[in-house]
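Everyone, carefully examine this protein record:
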Amino acid sequence: MTEQPDYLNNPLHGLKLEALLEQLINQYGWEILAEYTRINCFKNNPSMESSIKFFKKTEWAREKIERFYLYEYKNLPKAPEDQFEIPPRDRIIPSHHKPKEPKILKPGQAPIPKDRAGDKNKPKSFGNYRNQSSGGEKRHNDRPSVSSGPVDPYAKSPK
C-alpha cells in the first residue's frame, strides 16, 4: 500500500473556498484584499458569490488567494524552494510550523509588485520608428492637416 503525504498540518486541508473567503473578508475587508492581492474581483463591485465563482474558474487567482491565506492570514513561514512550485493546497507544511495570529495589514501600505519585465525606471522601447526617417521619406508627423469642415468624397471624381 502506498503511503499518502500528510496534509493534515496544512490549514487549507478540508477548508472550502467559501469558508476561506469568509475568514479573509471578516478579518481584512474587500478593500485590503483588493490592494494586497491585486485581484479585481475584490475591487469592482465585490460579492461573495461572484468571488467564489471567479476563484473556481481561475486557477492562478485561487492559488494566489490561498497563498495569501497561508502566509498573511495564518502567518506561516514562506514555503521552501522545493515546495515553491507546488500549489498551496498541495503543500506539505512541517508539523513544527503552527499558524499564528493574522498579520495586521493597513490600507495604503501594500508592497509594490515586482516588475517581471525588468527595471521600471528603464524607458519602454516600442521600436525606433521615430528615429528611422531617411532624407526622402515623409514621417508620420509630416502629414498635411485635415480641415475640420465637411469633406466631399466626390470632389475629385470625373463629371
In short: The radius of gyration is 27 Å. The helical segments are 17-28, 30-37, 48-57, 59-73, 81-84. The chain is about 30% helix and 0% strand.
